[in-house]
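CORE FACILITY INTAKE
Project code: CF-77B
Contact: R.S. (postdoc)
Sample description: multi-component assembly, two entities in total
Requested service: structural model of the whole complex
Turnaround: standard
Below are the sequence entries exactly as provided by the requester. Do not edit them.
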Amino acid sequence: MGTDRGVNTILAIIALTLAVLAWLAGSPYEKTTRQEISPLLASLIPAPEDRLGVINLAEWIRDRKPGLRILDLRTAEEFEQFHIPTATHVPLLKLAFSDLSSPGVTVLYGANEEQTLRGVLVLRTMGITPLHYVDEGVGQWLKQIINPTLYENPSSEERTQFQSASEVAAYFGGLSRTNVPRREGFLDSTDEVLQRTMRRGCSF
Amino acid sequence: MNAPWLGIGILSVDQSLALALVIGLGFGWFLERGGLGNARKLAGQFYLTDMTVLKVMFSAIITTMLGLFWLSRLGFIDLTLVYLPPTFLLPQLLGGLVFGFGFVMGGLCPGTSCVAAASGRIDGMMLLVGMLFGIFVFNEIYPLISGFYGSTPLGQITLAEQFNLPHGLVVFAIVAMGLMAFLVAEHLESRHGS
């Protein structure tokens, strides 16, 4: 019994010593590869400042920005149905094998945010810079550039955004709508906007 | 990096499962030798007469935690390759209550019921049957409870990340708590123990 207590006391002292040293050491990762690879991982993660609004993209297309390269990651059917003007269709699975060696600014969009960010990760790994992404892709393009809408009782921010969108919308054949009841606006899905756009004969 | 063996490719999945069987047998043997196949001993935990379960659990937690911390710190193991089960707060809270209720009723937990059954105890065998029946029922009603099962997901979190504290400080706090628990357990056993 006395021996057990002695062993227990020694084990407790060892545990406490290691625990105090752990407290002083801080992190279990500092001497491991996690810290070594973290800057690399950090450089691959899409940064919020690389996100590009569709109005800015529309201005770049209109102004024929030198070296602008727009990549559409969606399916061939979706691309055929509608795509952002001057975009090239590159499925996500073929992105890593596409020739992007010429210098320029690359802009990427997909069917949804996840697909877009996966594409950004692939291009970051390939070392493609500068690189921007439009996280809501065609949906935002249809809503803001092809069908810019100013709802009833707009805020000053909405009014400013509408004015910017209207300026470039005219270039792309967009049809501005003003004084739209908010309820109608909230019911506009991307598909509904696309159908309305197709009905009036605007396609690219 | 020398570990984890499965994560860095030293062991295949099949080999790691075979090794898990060996480790499991060893674990069971030590549990049995420690008397943890005896329902009376385990139930004593809930009546504060026998604190063996608490001592065993805290010893395991402290040993594993200090071992992983320092093996990682010294570059022997890559903790990023060690699987961290995700947290689903409410389902796991309810699961813990069900587990505790079954534990205090039967006097054995899943691991110790296997040990008890293997050492020929009838209560262990009955608990094993009950456990398998519970697994069967759970799988049958899973479509009905799948929503709750996946609710309140918090992801793969650790105490240090959740409370924005240094890992080392959390390690120290848990070791200190464990050592205090040992002292309290000794005191309770000397007071209530048979």
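Facility notes:
- Residues 122-149 of chain B form the longest helix (28 residues).
- Chain B touches chain A through 24 residues (CB under 8 Å).
Invoice: internal transfer
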